[in-house]
């Protein structure tokens, strides 16, 4: 049932709906039917004929979405006290444009960097970041942050009782029972991912404090910067040495081992400041096995403050 159904017939079903939500928070047990989701294909273009021209979307039960939203709102209130300043998305009081501006400043400074010491930027791409996230790791992270057992139980019920119905031509043709991952479109998912990603942030901060990585400064008296988060996108910045690059990579791989994530080396890329020697570029690329991005344009447009639609309109102007 869609939310429109509940709105239209709230006088008849409202009491039962509220009782169902209250029952979950009283017993801590998710009713089996509440956490079923229907997977349907949405066409990306008109007259879609190929599988690649469709996008799968998971339609959650409205009762579940209300339960999930209540938990997400609770997490939202405490995240600013738990999450480092480098993660700005979905965190109260922070603006994702702050990191957008920082990325552009970094790329701009790389273009005019002088001296013997070069810098690098690595954009980490995780393979299906939401789908591969370990449930056990989520539970461990919540426990390590001293979350109440009852709260951890609520979250565990939300993510581990999921079943997917595959819908085709208006009917259900199969069922999937996942063993890991969180769902796109679930109000709870982005907050859980941000919370879990804080472990990687702390690994990098620990490496920075111990001197295993150095990071960079955009100004003489500015703070030292080692990474930026855009929800599940990660930007690493450091000095262009094999040791520094290896230190960053080890932290990233350790996080992936713990959380069930995997780095997509094909889509993960590295960019160097203007003054980095070709020999050093070659050594780092060979050590990490990454692709080199030669131009600044892609970096700047990827994290531009201007939206993509607005940017397209601006580029089309003739006067």
From TrEMBL:
InterPro entries to which the protein is assigned, alphabetical: DNA/RNA_pol_sf, Retrotransposon-Effector_Assoc, RT_dom
Domain Reverse transcriptase: 23-292
Matching PROSITE patterns: RT_POL (PS50878)
Protein name as it appears in the record: Reverse transcriptase domain-containing protein
Superkingdom: Eukaryota
Record organism: Cannabis sativa (Hemp)
